[in-house]
Amino acid sequence: MTSCTKDNTIYDTVTVTKRDTVTVKDTVTVKDTVLITDSVLTESILTSHPWKLIKVIGVQGGAFMFYERGGTNNTQSFDNAYYTFNADKTGVVVDNSGTAHTVTTWSISNSGKTMSYTMYNSGSITSDYTWDNIKYKDGALYYDDYFHDNFINVNTHSQEVQIAK
User: Pick from 96, 87, 38, 44: which is nearest to 67 by CA?
Assistant: First the structure.
């Protein structure tokens, strides 16, 4: 009988070196500066162009009043109304029916936060109007409007927004 022996051991060493270098550089700088400030109402701003109402919320003679340009739930329309104030302290208010009402005088006071004007309602009947808490922001006038309409004998208080016509 023959036998076979194996005493020779072979060692095989394999070394694998793998290097992946990935460098990603991405710099994003976003600068967005928005400066919104409320400006004081000046004569120059007021007389620069005619003004049209875009929103009215208030009470007239005890009745709720709401208007939003293009809206569907308005209690009355101001779609055709606009205001023009002239540098000589006069002006005109055109109502929704197209009737022009002369503004006999107007003035700005309280550091641009209040404006008063007198307007002919009908014939020789005039009423005095006060816009208070005025802000001029992003091209729009925001204010509280207080007046007693001597033609129809009612008090009105509303918050209004107007933009250039």
Answer: 96
Give the pLDDT means over successive 10-residue stretches in the chain (165 positions): 57 63 66 65 95 98 96 96 98 96 96 95 93 95 96 96 96
Cβ 161 vs Cβ 154: under 8 Å: no
What are the residue ranges spanned by the domains of the chain? 43-164
Kindly report whether the global pTM for this prediction surpasses the value 0.85. no
Contact 149, 156 (CB under 8 A): yes
With vertex at residue 165, the alpha carbon angle to CA 64 and CA 84, rounded to the nearest 5 degrees, is 85
Phi-psi region of 139 (alpha: psi -120 to 50; beta: other; left: phi over 0): left
Residue closest to 134 by CA, chosen among 164, 113, 157: 113
3-state secondary structure of 110: helix
Within 10 angstroms of residue 141's Cβ, the number of other Cβ atoms is 22
Spatial CB neighbours of 38, under 8 Å, sequence gap ≥ 6: 135, 136, 137
Residue 47 — left, alpha, or beta (φ > 0 → left; ψ -120 to 50 → alpha)?
alpha
CA distance 12 to 8: 13
Quote the pLDDT of residue 143: 97
CATH topology (fold) of 43-164: Lipocalin (2.40.128)
